[in-house]
Amino acid sequence: MATNGHTEPSQAPVAYITGGASGMGLSVVEDLVRKGWNVTIADMNEEAGQKIAERLGQQVVFIKIDVTDYDQQAKAFVETWSKWHRLDFVFANAVMPSFNLGIGDRIDFYAPAEERDDGAPAKPNTLVIDICLLGVVYSAYLALHYFRKNESKAGKFVSTSSMCGLYPGEGIPLYTAAKHGVVGITRALSKKLAMRKEPITVNCLCPGLVDTGLTPVLMAVAPPEYVTPHSTIVKAVTSFLDDDSKNGLAAECSGENIHYRVQQEFGDDKAAWIMGSHFEELFRQKYGKTA
């Protein structure tokens, strides 16, 4: 990737978007470009990504990566910083490659398993967790590093969870676990960064059924009124970019509606004591430092 030839930060804001070569990610890319942003698209689909970069012009660069590979993500962040010398927004939006329904598990968790020679079932395929959760963890870790390199020390991190991050998707338990994990890391990071008074916000999206090209079977049978349009996703992302007070939220995107879900209330005063007012002190006593 060519750099801008100097080390002065770009005058325009800069975004790094995984899964930006199609679907929701592409809609966000196009919206940001219209608003004058520079954007790195980090995606596995090289053909689509290159065509999009050519179509959208000098504001967009494409980098082929596998989000489950930390070194590939790190290299993409390095190249983004080297080109524009700032990073304002990271959208961790990589999804599973298209198969079956387009989303979900690579195994039937409930089916009787064939035994290995030792009598145990073979190791299950957990790629969905690697992409949908581990990839987000890597993106978040790298985002914090580069946000802190900005003169402002500020940044916005948004990841894509799912309604399966809020409700049980009983047919796809591994996908559901991964998406619950995305909501969990959103709430944990946002709370701690706020406690540290760092100007970094962390939020996530929890869309319902969105026509992304990865859900053809579902789209064929779902009534149109139950489909969430891309415009709702873009609206939710924009709300996080425009409002610094939005932090630690899971934006449930349902049709044209956005419901900002906060952490559920503590069950009782004991839970509030352990996970709320005294968590840092308990951590310090256990490990000799605050969390």
Automatic annotation (TrEMBL):
PROSITE patterns for the chain: ADH_SHORT
Q: Keyword annotations for this protein? A: NADP, Oxidoreductase
A Pfam family found in this protein is: adh_short
Record bears the keyword Ribosomal protein: no
Carries keyword NADP? yes
- Where are the coiled-coil regions? none
**Entries under InterPro entries matching the protein:** NAD(P)-bd_dom_sf, Sc_DH/Rdtase_CS, SDR_fam
GO CC annotations on file: cytoplasm
A GO MF term: oxidoreductase activity, acting on the CH-OH group of donors, NAD or NADP as acceptor
Family membership, please give it: Belongs to the short-chain dehydrogenases/reductases (SDR) family.
This protein is called 15-hydroxyprostaglandin dehydrogenase
